Amino acid sequence: MVHIPEAIKEKARAVKLVVFDVDGVLTDGTLTYSADGEQVKHFNVKDGVGIKLLREFDILPAIISAKSSAPLSKRASDLGIVHFYPGCHDKWAQLSTLLDDLWLSPEQVCYVGDDVIDLKVMRQVGLSIAPADGYWLVREHADLITDSAGGRGVAREVADVILASRMPLAEAYIKAMLPEFEQSSEVRDS
Question: Which residues define the annotated binding site for Mg(2+)?
Answer without folding.
Answer: 21, 114
